[in-house]
Amino acid sequence: MKNLFSSLILASSMIIPGLALAEVEVIVHPSNAASMDKDAIKRIFLGKTRAFPGGGEAVPVSLKEGSSESAGFTKSVLSKTPKQLKAYWAKMVFTGKGTPPRQLDSPGQLLDLIATNPSLIGFVPAGTANGSVKVVGKF
Amino acid sequence: MQSKILTAFCLCFLSISSAMAADISFNGFATVAMGYDIEDENEDTTTPASPYSERTVDNLQESKVALQWTAQIEKDIRFVGQTMARGDASTGFTMQYDWAYFDFNVGDSGKFKAGRLRIPFYKYSDYLDVGYAYHWITPPESMYSLSFSNIDGLGYQVNFEGMGMEHSLNTVLGAYQGDLPLGGVPTASKLENFFAINWSASMGDHEFYAAYAQADVYIPAAAAVGLAAANTALGGDSSDVLVDGDYGHFFGLGYKATFGDVGVFAEYSQVGIEDSVLSDSSGGYIGGSYTMNDYTYHLTFESSKSDEKTYTNGDNDLGDGTSLNSLVSSALGNGGSTTVTIGARKDIGTSTAVKLDLSMYTEDRIQTAALTASKEERKATTLKFAIETMF
Lengths: 139, 391
Fold this sequence. Notes:
In chain A, 38% of the residues lie in helices and 17% in strands. By secondary structure, chain A is α/β, with parallel strands linked by helices. Chain B has helices spanning 2-19, 222-233, 324-332, 369-372; strands spanning 23-40, 64-74, 77-88, 92-106, 110-118, 150-162, 165-182, 185-203, 206-219, 243-259, 262-273, 280-292, 295-307, 335-348, 352-363, 378-390. In chain B, strands 1-2-3-4-5-6-7-8-9-10-11-12-13-14-15-16 form a 16-stranded antiparallel beta barrel. The relative contact order of chain B is 0.14.
């Protein structure tokens, strides 16, 4: 019975691919020397601070919501579901406390932007980052 | 006059900002709510227990639509304005400016604000009107009882970390001018030297807050003037009755936590105005929720209490068979109430929710003389439905 139950769970996860969350790499400009853990990244992406640990302006940019990378980052780094994140930004926007990160359509756009701006921080699918950016975490 | 100045200020600002081609973004939210009064034991009185009493399901009193614009003027300077139209059962929608302020970034995580600001009284104060952000159709009225929520003045808000928690400190300083009720009658009033501070902290899935506010309160209501004259006749001091610059204070506490799909929440507050005829009041609620996929089911128990003021020699006959204390009780009322609300919310997509709330309200003691003759308690049961969205 236990094996049957496990098989059902496995089968259901295979026929519902939307549940799979992609692994992401958090990237910054190569000149950024800040050392960052998950909490520091979370604070920047939730608008709780506008600076990297150790100083320097921090501006988060995100991949378009709805992508599996965005859902993966939201779950593993921000510890929220997409719905909770939407509600969080509703509170922040309508209280004038902040605005959500600018969203880009593709990892390529995000890589190009971060490679030219030392203030930016973003995330791309694991394995996508190239030499033009620096990876500060994989989640 | 104040709103005209504010309107002119906003229009002036908008024209300037257009000229400067500032980066302006727009957001909005809307609620369409309907209520049905299933039972109201006092629907024939002038003070029905349910605000939906004797009304039909198409009234608009809790419906609203708002548009917020944010103009990024310089890197660290923004202007935020929020215009809201609230539903009114008799006049349709009435528009007003809820917020209009400049904010300036200070340091890595601070903001200084100047203009019309939201007072950080409660857990949900900052987004009281954004129904999408919470599970009820309206937050518990026993707690969210103050009839004003904004002041004109200055504010400072900062986030910081410490003791394993994330903290947020929000302070405002300013003044309020507008209607405040005394004995249920709105009176042109003012709060001077208004100061409020709210500290909130979160640790994982646990959130706490504590808030304090104070002000010099002026409510020149005719009822208070009459009662003050009665107190003077009894050898008392009229200033013990009048609300003439008296120290008003507010204290609030709250807790919210989530344990997977289960949520718990509670808030409590006390309000008082010393040396005045106004009753000291307290209120709060406790509840829980369960989320299953797109559905959230919730149960809330709320309670409020109001203690009337009594005066030395206040039981003496005033010559017409009445006494000052009985007049105070009649005019301002005292007592307690409890409300149990059960409800459900269904999320549709990531920016719309449909809600259904059933509230059972019981007033434990007499609130006004109008009811004294007939009943010792009154009850109301209200069913409400709402669609909330943001864009």
